[in-house]
Amino acid sequence: MNSDSSPSSRASSPDMDGMFLRDHHLHHHHHHHVGSSVSSSTQSGDQQRQKMTGGEHLRSGDAKSASVGSSSNSNKYKLKKQVTEEEMYQLRLKINGRERKRMHDLNLAMDGLREVMPYAHGPSVRKLSKIATLLLARNYILMLTSSLDEMKRLVGEIYGGHVFLHVLHPVERATGAHVYPSTPFLDEGLTGCAPSPAAGLRLPALGRTAVSLHHLPGASSSTHPHHLNGPHETHRGGKGRDEMMSAVCDRQRLRHVMMIVNR
DNA sequence: TAGGCCATCTGGTCCT
DNA sequence: AGGACCAGATGGCCTA
Protein backbone atom coordinates (compact mmCIF):
# COMPACT_ATOMS: atom_id res chain seq x y z
CA MET A 1 0.00 0.00 0.00
CA ASN A 2 1.23 3.36 -0.82
CA SER A 3 0.35 5.61 2.03
CA ASP A 4 0.70 8.65 -0.15
CA SER A 5 -2.83 9.27 -1.19
CA SER A 6 -2.52 13.02 -1.05
CA PRO A 7 -1.30 15.41 -3.72
CA SER A 8 2.20 14.51 -2.68
CA SER A 9 1.77 10.92 -3.62
CA ARG A 10 3.97 9.30 -6.12
CA ALA A 11 2.46 8.55 -9.44
CA SER A 12 3.03 4.90 -8.95
CA SER A 13 4.97 2.49 -6.86
CA PRO A 14 7.05 -0.20 -8.45
CA ASP A 15 5.43 -3.56 -8.62
CA MET A 16 6.05 -4.96 -5.19
CA ASP A 17 6.58 -8.59 -6.00
CA GLY A 18 8.42 -7.64 -9.09
CA MET A 19 11.12 -5.77 -7.29
CA PHE A 20 11.90 -8.24 -4.59
CA LEU A 21 15.46 -8.43 -5.75
CA ARG A 22 17.25 -5.63 -7.43
CA ASP A 23 20.51 -6.06 -9.16
CA HIS A 24 22.41 -4.15 -6.51
CA HIS A 25 21.02 -6.51 -3.96
CA LEU A 26 22.12 -9.51 -5.90
CA HIS A 27 25.55 -7.94 -5.91
CA HIS A 28 25.41 -7.18 -2.26
CA HIS A 29 29.15 -6.84 -1.84
CA HIS A 30 29.43 -4.63 -4.86
CA HIS A 31 27.30 -1.63 -4.09
CA HIS A 32 27.08 1.36 -6.35
CA HIS A 33 26.62 -0.59 -9.51
CA VAL A 34 24.57 2.27 -10.72
CA GLY A 35 24.39 1.33 -14.32
CA SER A 36 23.12 -2.16 -13.81
CA SER A 37 20.80 -1.32 -10.96
CA VAL A 38 19.02 1.32 -12.93
CA SER A 39 18.00 -1.09 -15.59
CA SER A 40 17.14 -3.80 -13.11
CA SER A 41 14.58 -1.64 -11.38
CA THR A 42 12.42 -1.83 -14.44
CA GLN A 43 12.67 -5.53 -14.87
CA SER A 44 9.63 -7.68 -14.57
CA GLY A 45 9.20 -10.01 -11.64
CA ASP A 46 9.84 -12.97 -13.89
CA GLN A 47 13.07 -11.50 -15.13
CA GLN A 48 14.31 -10.90 -11.64
CA ARG A 49 13.13 -14.28 -10.55
CA GLN A 50 15.13 -15.82 -13.33
CA LYS A 51 18.17 -14.04 -12.02
CA MET A 52 17.44 -15.25 -8.55
CA THR A 53 17.04 -18.83 -9.59
CA GLY A 54 19.79 -18.74 -12.16
CA GLY A 55 23.24 -20.25 -11.93
CA GLU A 56 25.08 -17.44 -10.11
CA HIS A 57 22.29 -15.99 -8.08
CA LEU A 58 23.38 -16.86 -4.56
CA ARG A 59 26.23 -14.72 -3.38
CA SER A 60 27.90 -14.99 -0.03
CA GLY A 61 26.10 -11.85 1.01
CA ASP A 62 22.75 -13.52 0.80
CA ALA A 63 21.29 -14.02 4.25
CA LYS A 64 20.29 -17.63 3.84
CA SER A 65 23.39 -18.76 2.03
CA ALA A 66 25.47 -16.99 4.65
CA SER A 67 23.64 -18.79 7.41
CA VAL A 68 24.28 -22.03 5.66
CA GLY A 69 27.95 -21.38 5.47
CA SER A 70 28.21 -20.35 9.09
CA SER A 71 26.36 -23.37 10.41
CA SER A 72 28.47 -25.51 12.72
CA ASN A 73 26.14 -28.43 12.64
CA SER A 74 26.85 -30.61 9.66
CA ASN A 75 23.40 -32.17 9.65
CA LYS A 76 21.87 -28.77 9.85
CA TYR A 77 24.16 -27.72 7.07
CA LYS A 78 22.92 -30.49 4.85
CA LEU A 79 19.34 -29.74 5.68
CA LYS A 80 19.86 -26.09 4.92
CA LYS A 81 21.57 -27.01 1.73
CA GLN A 82 18.50 -28.88 0.67
CA VAL A 83 16.45 -25.76 0.72
CA THR A 84 15.65 -25.23 -2.87
CA GLU A 85 16.07 -22.00 -4.67
CA GLU A 86 12.36 -21.86 -5.18
CA GLU A 87 11.84 -22.11 -1.44
CA MET A 88 14.35 -19.36 -0.88
CA TYR A 89 12.58 -17.27 -3.43
CA GLN A 90 9.28 -17.79 -1.66
CA LEU A 91 10.89 -17.05 1.68
CA ARG A 92 12.29 -13.81 0.35
CA LEU A 93 8.90 -12.83 -0.95
CA LYS A 94 7.41 -13.63 2.42
CA ILE A 95 9.95 -11.58 4.32
CA ASN A 96 9.62 -8.68 1.94
CA GLY A 97 5.88 -8.79 2.24
CA ARG A 98 6.05 -8.67 6.01
CA GLU A 99 8.37 -5.74 5.89
CA ARG A 100 6.11 -3.95 3.47
CA LYS A 101 3.13 -4.55 5.70
CA ARG A 102 5.05 -3.33 8.71
CA MET A 103 5.98 -0.12 6.95
CA HIS A 104 2.46 0.32 5.67
CA ASP A 105 1.10 -0.03 9.18
CA LEU A 106 3.61 2.54 10.29
CA ASN A 107 2.43 4.86 7.56
CA LEU A 108 -1.18 4.33 8.58
CA ALA A 109 -0.27 5.34 12.09
CA MET A 110 1.48 8.37 10.68
CA ASP A 111 -1.65 9.29 8.74
CA GLY A 112 -3.66 8.93 11.91
CA LEU A 113 -1.31 11.29 13.62
CA ARG A 114 -1.59 13.79 10.79
CA GLU A 115 -5.35 13.74 11.10
CA VAL A 116 -5.25 15.11 14.61
CA MET A 117 -2.53 17.63 13.96
CA PRO A 118 -3.47 21.30 13.80
CA TYR A 119 -2.66 22.12 10.25
CA ALA A 120 -4.65 22.59 7.12
CA HIS A 121 -6.09 19.38 5.76
CA GLY A 122 -7.54 18.93 2.37
CA PRO A 123 -7.06 17.47 -1.05
CA SER A 124 -5.29 20.56 -2.29
CA VAL A 125 -2.89 20.67 0.61
CA ARG A 126 0.29 18.73 0.55
CA LYS A 127 0.44 16.57 3.61
CA LEU A 128 3.15 16.85 6.19
CA SER A 129 6.26 14.85 5.73
CA LYS A 130 6.99 12.20 8.32
CA ILE A 131 9.66 14.20 10.07
CA ALA A 132 7.49 17.30 10.07
CA THR A 133 4.58 15.30 11.45
CA LEU A 134 6.64 14.01 14.33
CA LEU A 135 8.11 17.40 15.14
CA LEU A 136 4.73 19.05 14.96
CA ALA A 137 3.19 16.39 17.17
CA ARG A 138 5.86 16.78 19.78
CA ASN A 139 5.53 20.52 19.98
CA TYR A 140 1.77 20.31 19.88
CA ILE A 141 1.85 18.05 22.90
CA LEU A 142 4.18 20.44 24.66
CA MET A 143 1.85 23.32 23.96
CA LEU A 144 -1.24 21.45 25.09
CA THR A 145 0.49 20.32 28.24
CA SER A 146 1.53 23.78 29.25
CA SER A 147 -1.85 25.18 28.28
CA LEU A 148 -3.60 22.62 30.43
CA ASP A 149 -1.32 23.48 33.28
CA GLU A 150 -2.07 27.15 32.92
CA MET A 151 -5.78 26.51 32.80
CA LYS A 152 -5.55 24.56 36.00
CA ARG A 153 -3.58 27.30 37.65
CA LEU A 154 -6.11 29.86 36.57
CA VAL A 155 -8.96 27.77 37.85
CA GLY A 156 -7.09 27.42 41.10
CA GLU A 157 -6.67 31.15 41.38
CA ILE A 158 -10.33 31.74 40.68
CA TYR A 159 -11.30 29.43 43.49
CA GLY A 160 -8.81 30.79 45.95
CA GLY A 161 -6.39 27.97 45.64
CA HIS A 162 -8.84 25.32 46.72
CA VAL A 163 -8.58 23.52 43.45
CA PHE A 164 -5.01 24.34 42.72
CA LEU A 165 -3.66 21.53 40.72
CA HIS A 166 -0.30 22.21 39.31
CA VAL A 167 0.75 19.49 36.98
CA LEU A 168 4.38 19.64 36.25
CA HIS A 169 5.34 19.54 32.66
CA PRO A 170 7.70 16.68 31.92
CA VAL A 171 10.37 19.18 31.09
CA GLU A 172 9.69 21.06 34.30
CA ARG A 173 10.05 17.87 36.24
CA ALA A 174 13.38 17.29 34.66
CA THR A 175 14.77 20.77 34.80
CA GLY A 176 12.79 22.72 37.33
CA ALA A 177 12.22 25.43 34.76
CA HIS A 178 8.77 26.48 33.71
CA VAL A 179 7.95 25.67 30.16
CA TYR A 180 6.02 27.68 27.69
CA PRO A 181 5.96 27.01 24.01
CA SER A 182 7.53 30.18 22.83
CA THR A 183 7.57 29.20 19.21
CA PRO A 184 5.16 27.59 16.81
CA PHE A 185 4.79 23.89 17.34
CA LEU A 186 7.05 22.92 14.59
CA ASP A 187 9.49 25.74 14.92
CA GLU A 188 10.76 24.59 18.24
CA GLY A 189 11.85 21.23 17.12
CA LEU A 190 13.22 22.49 13.90
CA THR A 191 15.35 25.21 15.29
CA GLY A 192 16.45 23.29 18.33
CA CYS A 193 15.54 26.34 20.42
CA ALA A 194 13.69 24.26 22.92
CA PRO A 195 12.82 25.53 26.37
CA SER A 196 15.50 23.41 27.88
CA PRO A 197 18.07 20.88 26.85
CA ALA A 198 15.74 18.18 28.07
CA ALA A 199 12.99 19.37 25.81
CA GLY A 200 15.17 20.19 22.88
CA LEU A 201 14.66 17.83 20.04
CA ARG A 202 17.85 17.45 18.22
CA LEU A 203 17.48 16.84 14.56
CA PRO A 204 18.63 13.38 13.70
CA ALA A 205 21.35 12.77 11.24
CA LEU A 206 19.41 12.29 8.09
CA GLY A 207 22.18 11.12 5.89
CA ARG A 208 22.01 12.35 2.39
CA THR A 209 18.61 13.85 2.88
CA ALA A 210 19.33 16.61 5.29
CA VAL A 211 16.20 18.45 6.26
CA SER A 212 15.95 21.98 5.10
CA LEU A 213 14.41 23.65 8.06
CA HIS A 214 12.95 26.52 6.12
CA HIS A 215 11.21 24.28 3.68
CA LEU A 216 9.32 22.36 6.27
CA PRO A 217 5.68 23.28 6.20
CA GLY A 218 4.73 26.01 8.59
CA ALA A 219 8.20 26.38 9.94
CA SER A 220 8.51 30.02 9.13
CA SER A 221 6.45 31.20 6.24
CA SER A 222 2.85 32.22 6.72
CA THR A 223 2.30 31.92 3.01
CA HIS A 224 2.91 28.22 3.09
CA PRO A 225 -0.10 25.95 2.76
CA HIS A 226 0.39 24.71 6.29
CA HIS A 227 -0.24 27.41 8.83
CA LEU A 228 0.95 25.82 11.96
CA ASN A 229 0.77 29.13 13.72
CA GLY A 230 -2.87 29.36 12.86
CA PRO A 231 -5.08 30.11 15.82
CA HIS A 232 -2.35 29.23 18.25
CA GLU A 233 -0.13 31.71 19.89
CA THR A 234 3.40 32.16 18.82
CA HIS A 235 4.61 33.29 22.19
CA ARG A 236 3.50 33.50 25.75
CA GLY A 237 0.46 35.69 26.12
CA GLY A 238 -0.21 35.70 22.43
CA LYS A 239 -3.54 35.76 20.69
CA GLY A 240 -4.23 32.08 21.18
CA ARG A 241 -3.63 32.22 24.87
CA ASP A 242 -5.83 35.29 25.19
CA GLU A 243 -8.57 33.41 23.47
CA MET A 244 -8.09 30.55 25.84
CA MET A 245 -8.27 32.80 28.85
CA SER A 246 -11.39 34.47 27.60
CA ALA A 247 -12.85 31.05 27.04
CA VAL A 248 -12.03 30.07 30.56
CA CYS A 249 -13.76 33.19 31.81
CA ASP A 250 -16.88 32.11 30.09
CA ARG A 251 -18.96 30.69 32.90
CA GLN A 252 -20.29 27.76 31.01
CA ARG A 253 -16.91 26.73 29.78
CA LEU A 254 -15.51 27.25 33.21
CA ARG A 255 -17.94 24.71 34.56
CA HIS A 256 -16.79 22.32 31.92
CA VAL A 257 -13.20 22.97 32.79
CA MET A 258 -13.97 22.39 36.44
CA MET A 259 -15.53 19.07 35.63
CA ILE A 260 -12.39 18.05 33.82
CA VAL A 261 -10.08 19.34 36.50
CA ASN A 262 -11.94 17.67 39.32
CA ARG A 263 -12.51 14.47 37.44
C1' DT B 1 19.15 19.80 -12.07
C1' DA B 2 19.78 19.19 -7.17
C1' DG B 3 17.64 18.26 -3.09
C1' DG B 4 13.87 16.31 -0.40
C1' DC B 5 10.93 12.64 0.51
C1' DC B 6 9.48 8.23 -0.06
C1' DA B 7 8.92 2.95 -0.89
C1' DT B 8 11.24 -1.04 -1.13
C1' DC B 9 14.75 -4.61 -0.51
C1' DT B 10 18.08 -6.51 2.34
C1' DG B 11 20.91 -8.36 6.17
C1' DG B 12 21.65 -8.11 10.96
C1' DT B 13 19.96 -8.33 15.66
C1' DC B 14 16.77 -9.19 19.24
C1' DC B 15 12.77 -11.33 21.10
C1' DT B 16 9.23 -14.93 21.79
C1' DA C 1 12.79 -21.07 14.11
C1' DG C 2 10.18 -17.41 12.87
C1' DG C 3 8.75 -12.78 13.35
C1' DA C 4 9.57 -7.91 14.60
C1' DC C 5 12.48 -4.22 14.37
C1' DC C 6 16.12 -1.54 12.55
C1' DA C 7 19.43 0.79 9.55
C1' DG C 8 21.77 1.07 5.11
C1' DA C 9 21.33 1.32 0.26
C1' DT C 10 19.03 2.42 -3.90
C1' DG C 11 15.98 4.35 -7.32
C1' DG C 12 11.68 6.95 -8.42
C1' DC C 13 8.88 11.03 -8.12
C1' DC C 14 8.25 15.82 -7.18
C1' DT C 15 9.46 20.61 -6.51
C1' DA C 16 12.14 24.89 -6.28
From TrEMBL:
Residues 230-242 have a biased composition (Basic and acidic residues). Residues 42-51 have a biased composition (Polar residues). One of its GO terms (biological process) is sensory organ development. GO terms for cellular component: nucleus. Residues 1-15, 63-76 have a biased composition (Low complexity). This is BHLH domain-containing protein. Keywords: DNA-binding, Nucleus, Transcription, Transcription regulation. InterPro entries: bHLH_dom, bHLH_transcription_factors, HLH_DNA-bd_sf. It comes from the Eukaryota. The keyword DNA-binding applies. GO terms for molecular function: DNA-binding transcription factor activity, RNA polymerase II-specific; E-box binding; protein dimerization activity. Residues 90-144 form the BHLH domain. Residues 1-20, 27-81, 215-242 are annotated as: Disordered. It comes from Monopterus albus (Swamp eel).
